[in-house]
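re the bet — no i am not wrong, look at it urself. input seq straight from the record:
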Amino acid sequence: MSTNLLSTPAAVGFGGVVQEYLWNWENQQLRVVYETLGKGSPLLLLPSFSSVSTRLEMGELARLLAPNFQVVAVDWPGFGESSRPSLNYRPEIYQHFLEDFVKAIFNTPITVVAAGHTASYVLQLAVKQPATFSRILLLAPTWRGPLPTMGASQQIAGFVRELVRSPILGQALYKLNTTPSFLSLMYRRHVFTDAAKITPSFIEKKWQTTQQPGARFASAAFVTGNLDAVHEQSDFLGLVQSLTVPLMVVVGESSPPKSREEMNALVALPGVRSVVIPGSLGLHEEYPAVVLEAVQDFLFSPEN
């Protein structure tokens, strides 16, 4: 698979060097934007999948880590500043992308910090290629998309996904579900815990992310469960049980009940280090300094 690295100085980031990684998928070239900050051992930051997914949600955490690590944060294909073509977004795409990206950018085992739904992809790669990561930190990990979590069947989820992908009606439905008022409601319900941080300017930036051309395709795939890399709790836990890499999990004390149940099952496994801190599913963005304080012993330990 041919790839190239090109500088894109016009991009707006969190203070690092912004570059693009040209990745080929099924004879189509995708532009993937990533940002590097700091010096030291390599550390990969993976933002969670969501309608507002962007590496900038990891920005403050990246700045806090930069004095000790060379931090790389990436916009997943279909999200952020990366290309958003009308692909049939599914796990295979992200499994191949993560493997190719890590192989192209790094030449040594790395620390990886993955938020939310990206946990399964990291765990799958770690089981497949144990030498890829030196340690894994999962922040508010989930494995099931919003609609399946709410109890929607695969048939209903698939119908909604195709509806959102449709040219006219799909665009209208997507716009209704990404209005500033809806985004604010989403953040108040299960992403942030401090309503004072959900300012109009904050929501405006999130809304701008949702309005990029092609934004609805990967977003619809996530919401409807088409980015679920596993489909049973036993499969998710089985990945953890197969790990040979040190693992730590950060749980938000205000996580939604169903998500918290899944996290509790994960941290109950032997060998999994864990900590509970304030926050919910967006704890990495809302409380980055608290996250770092809670995990610094794990991140800075010489264990490999």
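see?? The longest strand covers residues 28-37. told u. also Residues 109 and 132 are 5 Å apart (CA to CA). so pay up
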